[in-house]
UniProtKB/TrEMBL annotation:
<dbReference type="InterPro" id="IPR011035">
    <property type="entry name" value="Ribosomal_bL25/Gln-tRNA_synth"/>
</dbReference>
<feature type="domain" description="Large ribosomal subunit protein bL25 beta">
    <location>
        <begin position="106"/>
        <end position="186"/>
    </location>
</feature>
<dbReference type="InterPro" id="IPR037121">
    <property type="entry name" value="Ribosomal_bL25_C"/>
</dbReference>
<dbReference type="GO" id="GO:0022625">
    <property type="term" value="C:cytosolic large ribosomal subunit"/>
</dbReference>
<keyword id="KW-0694">RNA-binding</keyword>
<dbReference type="GO" id="GO:0008097">
    <property type="term" value="F:5S rRNA binding"/>
</dbReference>
<comment type="subunit">
    <text>Part of the 50S ribosomal subunit; part of the 5S rRNA/L5/L18/L25 subcomplex. Contacts the 5S rRNA. Binds to the 5S rRNA independently of L5 and L18.</text>
</comment>
<comment type="function">
    <text>This is one of the proteins that binds to the 5S RNA in the ribosome where it forms part of the central protuberance.</text>
</comment>
<dbReference type="InterPro" id="IPR020930">
    <property type="entry name" value="Ribosomal_uL5_bac-type"/>
</dbReference>
<dbReference type="GO" id="GO:0006412">
    <property type="term" value="P:translation"/>
</dbReference>
<dbReference type="InterPro" id="IPR020056">
    <property type="entry name" value="Rbsml_bL25/Gln-tRNA_synth_N"/>
</dbReference>
<feature type="region of interest" description="Disordered">
    <location>
        <begin position="1"/>
        <end position="22"/>
    </location>
</feature>
<dbReference type="InterPro" id="IPR020057">
    <property type="entry name" value="Ribosomal_bL25_b-dom"/>
</dbReference>
<keyword id="KW-0699">rRNA-binding</keyword>
<dbReference type="Pfam" id="PF01386">
    <property type="entry name" value="Ribosomal_L25p"/>
</dbReference>
<keyword id="KW-0689">Ribosomal protein</keyword>
<feature type="domain" description="Large ribosomal subunit protein bL25 L25">
    <location>
        <begin position="7"/>
        <end position="97"/>
    </location>
</feature>
Amino acid sequence: MSIDKTLSVQKREHHGKGPSGRLRAQHLIPCVFYTAKGDNIPVHALELSLEKIYGEMGRTKVFNLEIDDNGQKTAHPVLFWNVQRHPYKKCFTHIDFYGVDLNKAVKVDVPLEFVGSSRGVKLGGILETYRKSIRLASKPMDMPQKITIDVSDMNINDTITVADLQLPANVSAVCDRNYALVSVLTKSKEDIEESGADAQIAPVAG
């Protein structure tokens, strides 16, 4: 499997709030590339180019980061790592890229997508989702973009846990297999809160 997407960026020399603000005024976003060896290289990227490739790759798919350093270009396989956006303009303000070794496993929080209409909900139950993502481990090129969970066959009091997931080959979950992901409950959220019942929510393992 080859990497077919590339983002071109320019190495930047100036740091701090002032230079970063001037870059954003030119629709250039300050970024940092963290190499697999632990070094960091400040760069900047065109806002439109970032939006385009982020929409295609998200945080789970590998692409090449081509760094132009005074005309000398080098390419590195990376993932989007830390993505910061303006609180109300919805534009990027800063990006961290994480360099990966294609032969070594990485851990990534992969989005969960819940699809279907539950049998239990049709009978009056409440669908309660406990996670928006799940941390998975695999080699970078094997990482799925999302995990889809079909809730159609869930009845009242049914729960889908990590152990129930059908993960792709060479991909494993980095959390307890008994962690609940989604349940069909007999009570409303308000009733559960009033009765003091605890939803089975577990933190993502590190």
